[in-house]
Amino acid sequence: MEKFEITVLGCGCALPTVQHNPAAQIVNIREKLSLVDCGEGTQQQLRRFKVGFNKIRNVFISHTHGDHCLGLVGMLSSFSLLGRTSPLHIYAPSDYESLFRAQLDYFCKGMEYPVEYHPLDTEKHQCVYEDRSMEVFTLPLVHRVPCCGFLFREKPTQPHILRDMVDYYGIPLSEINNIKAGADWTTPDGVLIPHARLTRPADPPRSYAYCSDTKFKPDLVSYLQGVTLLYHEATFDKSRQDRAQSTFHSTAEQAAMIARDCGARQLLIGHYSANYRDVTVLLEEARSVFPNTLAAKEGLVVRI
């Protein structure tokens, strides 16, 4: 299987602690790296966990609270100091663009690589990025400022060729792509070998959903059906549900309910309030609803 993995760089809340950095993750799909959110200290975390700065192609910012974007301009400045020349694409809410460009003009004069800003409509579920192997969709969330999550989804691949069958029938290499695309093979003696005997089914497409700061939003499940891995904020435990409601955050129990109802294969919780020095209570609460739950921590790599 091709690589599809998530590296957690930070999973804390607005107030940094000695346990957790502000929000940031790396999504690696077939060695194409995207950074999702960029709180303070993200570039140090990239160093710490040996993520190559120049490998990052896209940056996706969920919203403009500081713990999700204040590390961005400093990181871009470092990219310039390191001699980056390849373009960097920023996908972020439309209301951030004017401030972002002003920060670049003030702090990052003379950058020798292009930065392209793609404004997002956070109220829509739509495809905002696409290449040959993957797509990225926005996920409308409910927070105190315009906010969206992101759904990373592999595109379906062709069936796998059975090399031993190809060798047995002496099929020329020039016909392999046709067979993958569904063609049968006829031997020189006129015997038809069906496509199904020459291939095995493709691996099912994998997906990753990143749901950052959001009030409990049950209708999210309509966008997340069958997601392979779901990251959902779990800022509080259920004893503080009123606090979660008033601050437009979710509890660990509510995160698990979303995972259960959308048929996710695995849940990753994070964005812990600074009140929790030990997040075991959040993990246990989520697992009581959705057993296949992990608690995010800095440096955690989840392979999908």
Got a strand count? 18
Which superfamily, in CATH terms, is the homologous superfamily of the largest domain?
Answer: Ribonuclease Z/Hydroxyacylglutathione hydrolase-like
- Low-confidence stretches at least 5 residues in length (pLDDT < 50)? none
DSSP helical segment count: 10
CATH class of the largest domain: Alpha Beta
Helix-strand category: alpha/beta
Radius of gyration: 22 Å
CATH architecture of the largest domain: 4-Layer Sandwich
What gap, in angstroms, lies between the N and C termini?
10 Å
**What number of structural domains do the residues give?**
2
**How would you state the average pLDDT, rounded?**
94
Task: Please characterize this protein's 3D structure.
The protein has 304 residues and is of the alpha/beta class. It contains ten helices and 18 strands. It is globular. The chain has a seven-stranded mixed sheet. It has a seven-stranded mixed sheet with strand order 7-8-9-14-15-16-17, covered by helices on one side. It has two domains: 4-157 and 203-303, Metallo-beta-lactamase, Chain A (4-Layer Sandwich), CATH 3.60.15.10; 160-200, no CATH class.
What structural keywords apply?
about 300 residues; alpha/beta; Metallo-beta-lactamase, Chain A; about 25% helix
